[in-house]
Design a protein that fits this description.
Layout lengths: L17 H4 L21 H10 L9 H18 L15 E4 L7 H7 L1 H5 L13 H11 L3 E10 L3 E11 L4 E4 L5 E4 L5 E12 L5 E8 L1 H8 L5 E4 L9 H6 L3 E2 L4 E2 L7 H11 L7 H5 L8 E3 L18 H9 L16
Protein name: Pathogen-related protein
Organism: Mollisia scopiformis
Length: about 350
Amino acid sequence: MAAADVEVSPPKAPGLPDYLLDPNATLKDDSAKWRYGRAPDYTNTRKVYEATKTKSHEAASLPNLVENLVKNWEVEASFKPEIDDWRTIDRPNYTFSINGGPPQSAEHMLKVGTYNAIITPNDYYDPTKSDFASSHKTFKRMMPTFAWEVLEVYSGPPTVAFKWRHWGVMKNDYVGYNDKGEKVTVKAHDGPIDIQGITIAKVDDKVRLQAVETWFDPLEMFRQISPSGEVTRTIHVPKPGEDITTQLHGEGYDAESGTPTDEPESTPLEAKKDFEKVFPSPEMTHEAAVTGPVVPVVEKSGAKAHESVPEETPTSEETASAVHTEMASSTPASCPFLAPSAPS
């Protein structure tokens, strides 16, 4: 049976919060307020992750704990509109910054959206000309699953440094507004989008995120969206009262799911097969996955242009020392950068 078809129960590790042990822990928060009235469905994304990841971290190892923490944080930042419901952050001390930029608050990320919080204005996309809803429609429609994994962890709590990978397949056209106000359209190429970056995160005694600093090349995704450079740019004149999502994607769009009403999502098996076409094996390198044929650059212009039974949440009596002791128990084999003899 394929790994993607097997649901693995979270490991038992007394003293650790469920959001470190189970990537779907926050999806089970029944008392939380959800952006669309219910928890999102990450089934396809999780199955694609299992089928096409490049690393297999041992359960409850430091890389696995970090990976689960970030996945649960992403769920909360994207789908929990009330910050009081976020369990993965130390709210009074939480900030998020990109490439050395100014720290952003959780409130700012909730207002603009996770994509707009990390992308700078460019020739393909401008976060100031988008909003939370339209940004999620633009990227989630183009790439229905966008899996994420930790590649390496360089240090443990309280300052966790790690390298990550974010990947998917461009199944539908990219449509967005650029920094000149033009509507940019790039035809889907059914090929991989595969980006990497580095994050340094400070965490508290409950291993909740505090100051999060991330470095990556925001333009790398767009270079892979349009590897040939062939794009269509037009000026769109919106109708009175027309929201940004409708301007970009038209009327036939399901605002809740982010899926065109006449285009059902792929089944998990179909999604897995799609990924196997462009990621033949987990051992495929990042460079090999994103390298394609070189074709002439043509620019056009004109009139047209996230699941299983949750672990119990640790009680308030579980102390900081228990948490840090558990995380510090990761062996050098599971995280070689923590080995005393590791080269600098």
